Amino acid sequence: xxxxxxxxxxxxxxxxxxxxxxxxxxxxxxxxxxxxxxxxxxxxxxxxxxxxxxxxxxxxxxxxxxxxxxxxxxxxxxxxxxxxxxxxxxxxxxxxxxxxxxxxxxxxxxxxxxxxxxxxxxxxxxxxxxxxxxxxxxxxxxxxxxxxxxxxxxxxxxxxxxxxxxxxxxxxxxxxxxxxxxxxxxxxxxxxxxxxxxxxxxxxxxxxxxxxxxxxxxxxxxxxxxxxxxxxxxxxxxxxxxxxxxxxxxxxxxxxxxxxxxxxxxxxxxxxxxxxxxxxxxxxxxxxxxxxxxxxxxxxxxxxxxxxxxxxxxxxxxxxxxxxxxxxxxxxxxxxxxxxxxxxxxxxxxxxxxxxxxxxxxxxxxxxxxxxxxxxxxxxxxxxxxxxxxxx
Length: 392
Prior knowledge:
Layout: H1 2-13, H2 19-26, H3 33-48, E1 51-61, H4 90-102, E2 107-112, H5 119-135, E3 140-144, H6 152-159, E4 163-165, H7 175-178, H8 184-196, E5 200-202, E6 205-207, H9 213-226, E7 230-235, H10 252-265, E8 270-273, H11 277-280, H12 285-288, E9 294-296, H13 308-317, E10 321-322, H14 332-340
Parallel strand pairs: 1-2, 1-9, 1-10, 2-3, 3-4, 4-5, 6-7, 7-8, 8-9
């Protein structure tokens, strides 16, 4: 297929595909899905070999968020019967993090519900970061606390944070359809603040919320322009009690096409297979390892994930290896760019490459037809905030 040959060549040279090409990946037929995976897999192996980075989530504060993000079980007005608790103590969070590290995680992601942290919250998280790093030599810590105010990113960096996560989630054009309490530009601003403070930027998307293929391409191109080091690709977990509970728009094959498109647009970035993989990829999860070089281990913030042991077995059975703490995740050119503080997006491609091309319609709902699998959506009842051991 000429399209895939072109995209592989561009990916190996770190060149941005056109929007037409990205849309064409999403429009490929199920008959061609293995060809798409094989092509994107060549790009993935060029920059990351067969390594898989493991990440572990610790939910520091669960539920009761004042924001109205429609996809979130912790949102204002959510009737999802999730765990609700206030801030974990630093020693409690450190114990949860240590369980993840013992399971093979290289990065611990500290997440707290809410619009954004107060200065007191930043102090609390700073103490938590210090406690985790005291107990786990070499572990990376990523904070995800919502919208940042002036100076907060710098304080987190001084406390030892390595990265900051704040996802764009969907395209700017449709952002108002999923959230009204803040804007797309607020999220962009927070990612930029994190980068300016010297934190590794982590920002991704959620697929399966009823968006069109054009929306998916638009948000991935917006991410490419921000040039984060990590791009988590989440697939909507349709929690009962949230506005998107009935949104079942993905098939495993379309989820693979989405991951492939992200890899072609962001060839040398840590693409993370994130929330919802068990729900929407199901038995096709091992194929996704040929596209993503990073996954979350065990459970998510408010939902259960695949057993940690099963994650490790899946990685080994697929012929991949867990990335160790002594290995730098990013390719050398990206690591060098980050160290130099380039904010122009030069880590991904030549700075003058804007990839400009008008999108063409690929047809909304190309992934439809999956059918509801509510049996795969389980609320987390173990780990952080409970007396039960975590899944790691």
